[in-house]
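pasting for ref
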Amino acid sequence: SITFDGITTVWVPAGEFFGTGYMRSASATWNSMADSSGKMSSLWMMPFRESCVVELTNYGHEEIDAELTVETVPYN
């Protein structure tokens, strides 16, 4: 999920967000990519004023390793 300025505006499974669905497969669009090893990245412009919170939640029963990096740049 992604919350901007206290309002959750993104709540979606990670695979759907990155365009691969529930399977680990290579995919590329204008704004996102995923490779067959499971690495996913996106370049969405998501402006906010004060705060942005990105959370990964595992609703499954298997333990999953994840690394999350978020980069921001000034926007007028």
